[in-house]
Amino acid sequence: MAAVAGGQRGSSLAFQRAEHLRRGINLSMWYAQSGDYSAGRLESFTTPDDFKLIKGLGFDHVRVSIDPDPLIAMPMSGALRPEAMARLDKTVAQLEAAGLNVVLDVHAGQDFVGKLANGEDGAANFFSFWSEFAKHFAGTDPEKVFFEVLNEPTMTDLYRWEGIQARAVARIRSVAPQHTILATASNYSGIDTLLALEPVRDENVIYTFHDYEPFWFTHQGANWGAQGWIFLRGVPYPATPQTIGKVLGQEQDERVRLWVQRFGYDHWDATRVGMEIAAAADWAQKRGVPLYCGEFGVYRTYADAKSRDTWISDMRTALESKHICWAMWDYQGDFGIVTKGSGGTMVDLGVVGALGLKGR
């Protein structure tokens, strides 16, 4: 019997498969988000030595971000580029050989998701892609390889996304009857939209969400997203009206000051984080489905290391207390657990400890 969010126990295949995704790490800026998908970069950016390190740290799986556009040979037909798929096949085989399970996360770029949100041609292309992509990987071990429908759907129309996702799940299931699918909610896969989602009509599905709250801490200094993040440095966690005072002196923009004040008065701490996770767990318990937090993490450039470790620990503890499997964002990017340089690969042992892992 497998543990289920909210304390119930489930015996369905999805719950059993969720046990293979207990503690993971995202492999980003590799098969997605880089703009360079040449064979040379793909082979050197993340390597079997990294896979060995990831396994040695105590992770049981990786979530591999994959941009569908470089894989598609002919839009609408779903035909895939043989050479691109061969490289991805090699990566999946190497990950399995290292003892890691694999979430194949369709992590599309803005153009792809924009067309999906705004037109029937975009949806048709999406369905065709999944038919061919799932068929390609249907021969892999379903205990080790998982299909994630789409990373952070941007559309705000919940009902349109539910319809698209249901059709995509049906396409996948028609060619890969044994594989477990990861489904999500609209509008960037946050907890708020998860609570409005109704499960698809397929029992072999795990439901995923992302949680970076509070963004004023986790994304301080980031040059994307909300206006104001880029100006912040050293935002504390836990936060109170008193501890946030030092940060208010950094920024004179009235709106940013108000947003940061609100952050402090919200008293973000382990209890506040746990409240958010408990809401997701309650949703899953009532519907009898397993949950997976596919992303959480802290932009590390300007965050205080101790505060970062504390937030990651609180998030991981909250997830595990509700039997929710997880994958931290990310391995070697701006939220990473390692730093690569001329001296080799340096592991952030503070984050390793915060994740409850043993290290090497």
UniProtKB/TrEMBL annotation:
Record-annotated Glycoside hydrolase family domain positions: 43-332
Assigned GO CC terms: cell surface; extracellular region
Pfam families registered for this protein in UniProt: Cellulase
Domain of life the protein comes from: Bacteria
GO molecular function, one term: beta-glucosidase activity
Keyword line: Carbohydrate metabolism, Cellulose degradation, Glycosidase, Hydrolase, Polysaccharide degradation
InterPro entries: GH, Glyco_hydro_5, Glyco_hydro_5_CS, Glycosyl_hydrolase_5
One of the GO biological process terms: cellulose catabolic process
Family that this chain belongs to: Belongs to the glycosyl hydrolase 5 (cellulase A) family.
Protein name per its UniProtKB record: Glycoside hydrolase family 5
Organism of provenance: Granulicella tundricola (strain ATCC BAA-1859 / DSM 23138 / MP5ACTX9)
